[in-house]
Amino acid sequence: MTAPRRSLLAPDPRTIARNRAEARFRAYGLGAVGVALVALAVLLLSIFGNGSSAFYQTYLEVPVMLPEKSLDKSGTRDIEVMKKVTTVGYAKVLKTALDEAIEANGIIVEGLGKKDVGNMISDEAAAQLRNMVLADPTLVGQTIAFEMLANGRIDGYYKGRVTRESAALDSNVSPAQLDLADALAEKGLLATRFNLDFITAPDASDQRPEAAGLGVAILGSFYMMIVVLALSLPIGVATAVYLEEFAVKNRFTDVIEVNISNLAAVPSIVFGILGLAIFINFAHLPQSAPIVGGLVLTLMTLPRIIIPARAALKAVPPSIRDAALGVGASRMQSVFHHVLPLAAPGILTGMIIGLAQALGETAPLLLIGMVAFVRDYPGGLFDPATALPVQVYNWTQRADPAFVERASGAIIVLLIFLLIMNTAAIVLRRRFERRW
Amino acid sequence: MKATKLAVSALAIAAAAGAAEARDQIQVAGSSTVLPYATIVAEAFGENFDFPTPVVESGGSSAGLKKFCEGVGENTIDIANASRKIKDKEVAACAENGVTDIIEVRIGYDGIVFASDINGNGFAFTPEDWYKALAAEVVVDGQLVANPNTAWSDVNAELPAQEIMAFIPGTKHGTREVFEEKVILAGCKASGALEAIAAIKGDEKEAEKTCMALRADNRAVDIDGDYTETLARIGSNKDGIGVFGLAFYENNTDKLQVATMSGVTPSVETIASGDYPVSRPLYFYIKKAHLEVIPGLKDYAEFFVSDDMAGPDGPLAEYGLVSDPELAATQEAVAGEELMN
Q1: Where are the transmembrane segments (chain A) (predicted)?
Q2: Which of A399, A435, B7, B58 is the most buried (most CB within 10 A)?
């Protein structure tokens, strides 16, 4: 019997079959990546399509005369007396100013209702003007150039959300108002421009979506991340180092190990229930405060930090420890002088990814009162605040369609923060991680 | 153990600092129907008074009242918003935890409207139509049978021949209760079905329960989310008819058309006059013990029911609240800190 003839140039059938199998597998893999990419593209397109307009806002800019007669009857410029004039009084001042500007520019629009001109202006503008005047009472009696937010529906007209057809059906805006807006824009009194307030301003009520911003939410998230970082880094690293380097292997440490892995998989709402019971009902910490949110998120993040930290420590070869011990270092010295610095990039990467997860978490915050309407900037860890993902959740529930754009805009901001954190994690890993 | 020591000391510091600081802003929680009104008032309150803006949480009437009844003290809420009256059971739970002196404030009325896609058929309903369309079992020839109706024209020949598809609030919403009582049960009574069922079952209470049991064959869909979800469902299913709050409808008149009920178009005026049948009062509840402790609490309550806010020309009415004709009495009660009886 002779062996079958084999040529190095022509592959035999089995090789062909194996090569085909490999080609198929590659195609499957590519297909899987493709599906994931398409899903990502659809998600990003819908979010950016809806949300990018949140970063632009329509403003009216007209000269505003601040009459002493209505803003400071006493004429004393005494703040306490002037505070008696509410935003209603300031709204009238703004409406008069807009009326005068329309007249001065010779704009005539047919079919305007009695309230239509006043309703072009956001309610927020009156509050802004009032704060401005109370901060500087000498403005009373002068004419100032004041930039006021336009009503959300007018703003929607320039973003394609409101059309003449929909305005005819909409009880909150009329086609005549849109005509007026066009006429004002032609005279340069109305313009849409970049809106930094979306990032810095606090939330606003349902009646003024045009003024709603992310300021309080970003600050609240920032405070919580500080708490999470300050608590979970030392606790997580200490736990990982102890379990990996010092603990004897026995049933007790086995139990701990199982529990840590288990905790990492517990749904986050459970930590919210725990937080409500321990931090609010037992420790009497205030509701809606970033300190409680931070503590709850710390509990949630801890196992997710300990596990990668232990993996990073385990990856440091024993020869490093042996060498350190061999030249007379104590075990603690070997850990802190040699093992920990070598494992640091891995630990930090795990830390950043853990923080990013905590930043995007909503469920546990529901139970501790952070899903709330908060307008004052939190001055510290104990003041009420909201968080970025919570703000998204809040806005999707509002009746006014303008909040859809706001919610998507908030998602964009959240995604940018997450992208920065995850990029930092990757860069750290690439630059400092050593392979053995 | 280093880790535990750190954790314990961190907690201790946090607790000590928390206890040392007094709360100076009002905290409110409760009904998602009252939420928009409460935020409008809170916003205006923060702008025009020297107090911080109150913190308003949502979560539903029951959740809010439960939180309200947890006790008295700075880390409990001051006000619970509710889209229904507080129940005796809840008052008892409150009393058990030391919340005894409660002030009840009625802020106005909320209309519940039925709306469909703006480009679809228009509807003129009666409660009877809704009962016949959505009941799980109806009486046919003296027998209780599973609801056979599939189109609105089966229910009432004057309605268009459109598939029955209703998006109704889920059971956790206060709106559901009102819907069952003022629409389904009322329709059951009006059609004479209540008597017929009572005759079959031999028990009035049992008959009412049967009346209010809704069909579970995907023609009546419970919406556990907010009205925004109902709106989205109608957007993707043009045959759907949704149950909304009047305020929500008023903010989306370019997408929805509203149905009349017993010949009356829902509006702030028809609800205030009582002509439109499906409406309910909205409330908030204050802990009297907190009036002395939390700065601005009484000012907030008085501001809420003032003519500038809750009056017929105020911003709340503009948003969709039906102003209470007896607002003056409420204002007096709040000023006098009258307890609920």
Answers
A1: 27-48, 222-243, 263-283, 289-307, 339-360, 407-428
A2: B58
